[in-house]
Design brief:
globular; binds zinc ion
């Protein structure tokens, strides 16, 4: 009798993979962050990535990291987590948020107020910055479960010409 596969992705790894896939939509030349919001039945409720607000052309608004605030992306970009919350057609209360980078303090406020109960993240590379310290302080005070993935998920995504494509 054949054995079933045992090295499958866990749910947490699978949804982190979806967050990574969503990040590939980002136009940001330096940082691509993806997020996915999932309910207690493992149903995807929403996804998001970092980008300019609707109507704010990503060809016109700046992507720079340095210079006067109005010349940088920081004044304008909507983070992946906030986009995932705002894009959702359904309430996200009680859900888990998957995000490739630990949320900033502004996203933490939205995550708490939206009622998300668990955050699964991968990178914590800004953990010693004031904004991340503030974020962690609020998320902990709000009783949100914080889980760093032990295994990272690496996607190898490739765009190729569809050999079966026929123009209609
Ligand atoms: Zn943020």
């Amino acid at each position: 009798m054949e054995e079933k596969r045992k090295d499958v992705l866990t749910w947490d790894e699978y949804f982190m993979g979806l967050a990574h896939l969503s990040a590939l939509r980002s136009k940001d030349p330096n940082t691509q962050v993806g997020a996915a919001i999932v309910d207690e039945n493992h149903r995807v409720v929403s996804v998001g990535y970092n980008g300019m607000p609707k109507g704010c052309s990503d060809d016109v608004f700046p992507w720079s990291r340095e210079g006067a605030i109005l010349q940088t992306k920081y004044a304008f970009v909507v983070h992946a987590e906030l986009n995932a919350i705002l894009n959702s057609k359904y309430p996200v209360s009680g859900c888990t948020l998957y995000v490739s980078l630990f949320p900033c303090n502004e996203c933490a406020k939205a995550i708490i107020q939206a009622g998300i109960r668990r955050i699964v993240y991968e990178s914590d590379k800004y953990q010693n910055t004031d904004t991340t310290i503030a974020s962690r302080r609020m998320l902990k005070a709000a009783g949100i479960e914080l889980v760093q993935l032990e295994n990272t998920v690496v996607l190898h995504v490739e765009k190729v010409c569809n050999p079966e494509y026929r123009e209609n």
